[in-house]
Write a structure and sequence with these properties.
alpha+beta; Beta-Lactamase; Alpha-Beta Plaits; 2 domains; 5-stranded antiparallel β-sheet; 5-stranded mixed β-sheet; 10 helices; 12 strands
């Protein structure tokens, strides 16, 4: 028996789950142990990226980790072995706790992917709707149901990691509703909440699934957008400004709307979370001080 065939035979008959992903986190191996633990067959998994599968790893507190703090992605980035306890989704819908051991695969002194070995931690199972509730509570704003600051920071860190390793360009948008305190004082906080909810509805209907827009705090929004050209940033920001400006609520037989000042910036070499958010915030302030209801890109 050839050595490669022998290794494949051994891996395929382990009781632990084993899978291999390349640099794009696309699965190229899914052994019988993984099938037994999760219920998903190799045919259903191989060829898909982690994000395209239904495993949807979450931490024990319900926070999703596939795009926010993924240990598999981190190992691909820095080559460090990692161990963690996570919950994976079984094909039948319930959640099962597993212990994962992740290590890089290196060829010719270059990382070409990573292997994850996972073992069922206990016979306990968790209903998927409970996990979904925990996830939403931990990572979403209670009023608007948009991603909250914690989620946004994690996703921004993920996009920065991609940018540093794969040079995938993206932009960060920072928006602040103009004169929102005055609006609340004049029409009441219920009207202010209604405006935020309607803006949220407009955002959700117009947002691509590869981007993320959330509530940074108060009347502030932050957006993270993949782009193909730096000039795309100003176009994205102008669409956001126009979207808010044309969103209305009905209040005491009157149609009300608000405007928003926007700043948007493109990721640069050496950026971190603080530098990108601060730069976008500064650009937003330029829009504020030069007349409001404007976009400033830089």
């Amino acid at each position: 028996m050839q050595r490669v065939d022998l290794f494949s035979h051994i891996i395929d008959n382990l009781s632990d789950g084993v899978y291999f992903v390349d640099l794009d986190r696309r699965l190229h191996l899914w052994n019988k142990g993984a099938e037994a633990i999760t219920g998903f067959s190799a045919e259903e998994m191989i060829g898909k990226t982690c994000a395209e599968t239904l495993l949807q790893h979450v931490a024990e507190d319900g926070c999703p980790i596939c795009t926010t703090g993924c240990p598999l992605f981190s190992t691909i980035m820095d080559g460090q072995q990692r161990k963690a306890r996570v919950l994976v989704r079984h094909k039948d819908g319930h959640r099962i706790p597993v212990l994962v051991n992740i290590f890089p695969v290196i060829e010719d002194n270059k990382i070409i992917g990573a292997v994850e070995i996972f073992t069922q931690d206990s016979p306990t199972v968790y209903e998927d709707d409970v996990i979904a509730h925990l996830s939403r509570a931990a990572m979403h704003d209670t009023l608007t149901s948009l991603p909250n600051r914690r989620y946004l920071e994690s996703f921004l860190e993920y996009r920065l990691s991609e940018f540093k390793r794969f040079e995938k360009p993206f932009a960060v948008l920072f928006a602040d509703i103009d004169n929102f305190s005055k609006f609340n004082n004049e029409y009441g906080h219920d009207a202010g909440d209604a405006v935020l909810k309607n803006i949220t509805a407009s955002i959700k209907k117009s947002m691509r699934n590869i981007d993320l827009v959330g509530r940074w705090g108060g009347e502030e929004f932050l957006g993270i957008y993949l782009i193909t050209d730096p000039d795309d940033a100003a176009i994205i920001a102008e669409k956001f400004r126009s979207l808010v400006n044309t969103t209305v609520i009905e209040h005491a037989d009157t149609s009300l709307n608000v405007t928003v000042s926007v700043g948007i910036t493109v990721a640069q070499t050496g950026d971190d979370i603080d530098s990108m958010v601060e730069r976008a915030d500064t650009l937003m302030y330029e829009s504020k001080t030069s007349g409001k209801n404007k976009v400033t890109a830089g």
